[in-house]
Specification:
- The structure is a single chain.
- The protein is mostly helical and 93 residues long.
- Helix content is 47%, strand content 9%.
- The chain has three helices and two strands; from the N terminus they run αβαβα.
- The protein has a two-stranded parallel ribbon.
- α2 links the parallel β1 and β2.
- The protein is elongated, with a radius of gyration of 17 Å.
- The relative contact order is 0.16.
């Protein structure tokens, strides 16, 4: 259940604006296809999610498509610089 929990959690965080929109790409159309069908054919008609929410994630079998979706999805996203590791805390680079 962990994978599904994380997938729906990130969708919720994006929907509610708690995090900026970013590309969510899952590998395995055969595995995630039934979930996408359920979301599209059950959740949307029931009104539990909006049709636009279907665009929150992409399922693919193609690593090149995954990379392309991620590259396209990062356009316009501002990334924060991570703080430097602190030796005193035992952190390494």
């Amino acid at each position: 259940f962990g994978t599904m929990d994380e997938l729906f959690e990130v969708g919720t965080l994006i929907q509610t604006g708690k995090v900026e929109r970013f590309p969510v790409v899952v590998m395995g159309k055969d595995y995630f296809g039934p979930l996408a069908t359920f979301v599209r054919n059950t959740m949307v008609p029931e009104g539990t999610i909006d049709p636009e929410d279907l665009q929150l994630f992409t399922a693919t079998d193609d690593p090149a498509e995954m990379v392309q979706r991620i590259i396209e999805g990062r356009e316009g996203i501002e990334f924060e610089r991570r703080p430097s590791p602190r030796v005193v805390l035992g952190e390494s680079r």
